[in-house]
Amino acid sequence: MDFNWDRTKKSNTSRTIHAYSNAPFIELFVDIASQGILPLATMVRGEGSYAAEFEDVEWKAYCSLAAVARMEEDDDAEVSTEVTTCGPPLALKLSIHCPLPHTGTGSALF
Asked: InterPro entries of this UniProt entry (predicted)?
């Protein structure tokens, strides 16, 4: 089971989350709050490829996203995966590595 979010439909407050599994149902949680249980639909990419699409899911920095695969809607048996979203960028540090012949990085910058 795996899931990801649609990076083409960005907003500051919501995302579309795609959950992939071969189980018939997926429940999505954001910071332990259920976003509902959806049946998986066969995807165009071929046999054995299934997904559930959760639209307009609240999106914020450092939240926990968990997808739980279920064999039935009210089944307690589950398989899950979880990720934590990142926060805003804090800094970007660039440096140049000077080429040195004795390190094998060359002798000049291009």
From this structure: Ig-like_fold
- 19-35 confidence digits (pLDDT tens): 888 788 889 998 889 99
Q: pTM of this prediction?
A: 0.64
Residue 21 in any domain: the answer is yes
> With b meaning 16 or more CB within 10 Å and e meaning fewer, what string describes 27-43?
bbbbeeeebebbebeee
Residue 65: the pLDDT is 87
The CATH number that applies at residue 14 is 2.60.40.10
Name the residue with higher pLDDT: 44 or 50: 50
C-alpha 94/C-alpha 77 separation (Å) is 48
Q: Which domain holds residue 28?
A: 2-84
Number of domains in the chain: 1
DSSP, residue by residue, 19-38: EE-SSSEEEEEETTEEEEEE
Domain assignment present for 10: yes
